[in-house]
Amino acid sequence: MPYIDLGPVVGKDGGFGNITSDYVNDGGSPGVEITMSGEDAAKDFHFEFKNLVNDPLTSAEVKAIAAGEQVQSSSVVNGTTLSQFFGLLAEAFAPADHQHDASDVTSGTFSGDMLADKAVTADKIADNAITAAQIADGTITQAKLDEATRDCLSPVRVWGGGEFPYNKPTDRSFRAFGVYGYYVAVDSGSNVWGGCILSDNTVTWVKR
Question: What residue segments make up the domains of the chain, in order of their start?
Fold first, then answer.
């Protein structure tokens, strides 16, 4: 601590006046301020000790620090204040292992494995909410379709004229479509033909 020259401190009568002191903890540098006052015969002395003893942080200071405030203090941390601080910190954050209600989710996208089986039904999907462009190729397989839909789609076949396995409806080039033994063909002249397959594997074509 630096030397302080107080000058003559003993009164003319060879005595002192009142001696008082204060302790200040304002987070500043340590030091001592001495103030003399009173009659020269017996001077009064006041000692102000600053930041010489490191007291523990007060509860109010800990709460202020946990709230993110800047606290000017030379006080120290002990076990009590540290426990209080981490207790306040735990209240400010959710625990690592916790759950949310579905209504808490306001943005983002759920992956398929996050949805419960049969959680999304047809009546939960707004009209035109899912467009063909939003469905990735190969996402909807035949196994995912209703049985009636599978039965309807699976027999449909399309042939070019040269690939058609039965008798031709015309000598023109054509394309044929077949489902459940009934066939429709459109030739290069825009004529439409229809016919059913017979037991001898021939088609009875009729021009429509």
Answer: 1-53, 59-92, 153-207
